[in-house]
Amino acid sequence: MAKGNKNQRAARRQAARKQAARKQPPARDKAAGKQPPAKQAAGTPAPKPSARSVAPGEASAEAMSAARRVAWWALLAMVFLVPVAMSNLTFLGFRLPITYDEFDIVKVFFQRVLGLVALAAWAWDLLRRGGKVRRTPIDWLILAFIVWVALTTVTSIHWPIALFGKPRRYEGLLSFVNYAVIYFLVLQFAGGAARVRTLARALFFSSLIVAGYGLLQFIGWDPATWGTLPFEANRAFSTYGNPDLLGGFLMFSTPVALGLALAEPNLVWRLVYWAGFAVNGVTLIVAFTRGAWIGGALGLALVAVIAWRHRVRLRRVDWIPAAVSAALGGGIIWRSLSNPDEVMNFGKRLASIFQFGGGSGQTRNEIWQAAFAAVKERPILGWGADTFRLVFPKFKPVEYVRDAGGASVADNAHNYPLQLATGVGIPGMLMMYGIFVWAGVRSFGTVFGRTDDPTRIVLGAFWAAAAGYLVQLLFGVSVTGNTFLLWAALGVVHAPTARVVEVKAPKWGTAAAVVILALAALGIVYQVLPVSADAAYLTANAAPSAAARVEAARRAVKLNPLSGIYRSELGLAYAAEVRAYLNAGDQAQKAGEDTSSYAAGVKSSFAAAETAFKDAIAFQPDEYDNYVFLAGLYNLAGQVLDKSYYDKAIAVARRGLVAEPYGTAVRVELARALISTGKTAEGIKELEYSVKIDPAGGQAALLLAQVYEQDGRAAEALALLKSVDALAPGQAGVAEAIQRLEAGATPTP
User: Are residues 492 and 182 in contact, defined by beta-carbon separation less than 8 angstroms?
Assistant: First the structure.
């Protein structure tokens, strides 16, 4: 028995040795340096040679299905088109832009349409054919964050803004979902070095247009026609409409351009990338944006460290373009040092970073004070994503009115953690920054690990760009036209370490794919509505007549009834029609004509305006401007229809002060109504308080000076207007009132 067991064990050991021998690779042919061909079983076809070698984790372009190619090219088109997109095409001969919002709404349109195309194409392929899905543990935290934002949308003070985002910002729930989709799709496709380079090139060529246009603006060769700019002339703002937002884009394009240059083996392309880096770097300087300078310096420093870690060495050919880039930037900086404008002077602008007692630094601190107070009021669920404009007036300190003016309303906290905490609560902010920190830590080894692989520098450039952008967001504003690149960068740096899961096509896959295609098509069609509505809103603002303005405003509300600004515009259009009827009636009366039709028109348009403003207030009770508009309409009606409307103006104005306790414009309307009803002392009190908290406010000063003059206090009226004109010269009516008072005070010879 024992002998039998021994023989069996020996037989098993011998069989195991034979099996192991069969698994060993065949010996190399020393003469040829190749492996001998393996024996082929009878009837088995010989394997076909591969068309080209494929990097690990990367599918070849030939291996991709048509649907996956559509998804990949949609992502590339998004990276290229979104930064370039704007609706001001006056350089092509158009008289007006296509939309009122010339920048963000167009970028959101391309981002969402191309995102839907990419997602639908990828899902179509996966559901019908199966395939590989890349996953990371961070996916679950991203999903939890989206669910949390959805919850805060339900509990927000205004769900349409929390869902769609504030106009000209658009960072509501839909944008956060879009960010997650972009991250997920980039994670699926950026699994190899070639794909990462292709994505980087799409961003690079987009940056040549964006940054190049910014340089043209700096030197004064802007081919497009713009209205009055709210910042200094010759500051680059390009296709983003604001130097700060352009700086956010350059946080990505500048490090990526440098990464491409250092990783490129081809001499010609290496020089092209160096030239692009110079264009981006110089534009970063001439945007004169301090937060972008800080973030850009960090991003470039990180690229240098990453290049060193991957043993990337500068060639002799690199020194010339690097020196030219440094010389161009240094020359522009040196020339700016003699500029008397503190914003356009690099030295003074850089030094102002550390000055918090005046200028934009002081107002930013005051905005942060309001944000902290808002977070303290609703720390868990927040007020709703992107609702800061509605929240800020309730919490802004009185000092902000003095420093920024009574008409100024901050629509963003100018600090991304505070912006998130205000909108989606502290838990939402912690989840979002947990995603960023976890992503940075998880990909740190991939990016900074010591290798001899120069292609890693491009992947590392995305990591550095994301870090620089997050630093810039501590002082700046997140808009979808930039932040989508942050989420794309997260997908890029995570792709090498993602876990690959094989997914089989389900039996119901085709039916589900058809449903997804239909939903994506509906989503794409829907994106046309807000753009068309904004085009109608532009038409209303540029309408040649009051009637045309009303028609266009009604069309804007019909196309997008969830926008508060279009509802307000409809009220303003009807109010303009009231004034048009009043003017026409005055002309008819002077000409001795019948004015009854004009009087009827005044009453009809007034009723429509009143209804529109009430509707706007009911739709958005926290929007302060609507109270100003309705109180002003009632004051006008008190003059031309019935004095009882002054009492309505008083009631509406007091409601406006609940929405914005330090609102000076609504106090002017309140004072006007009080004075018109004989409550002059109360009206003076409101006006004097307005002038006290906003010494440069022209409206309050003009009305108060008029009351002083009627009360025989002409000297006080003149002194008041001169002080206002000294603080903010050029305000409508102030200089004329000063001249009239001075002429009245001059004795007749």
Answer: no
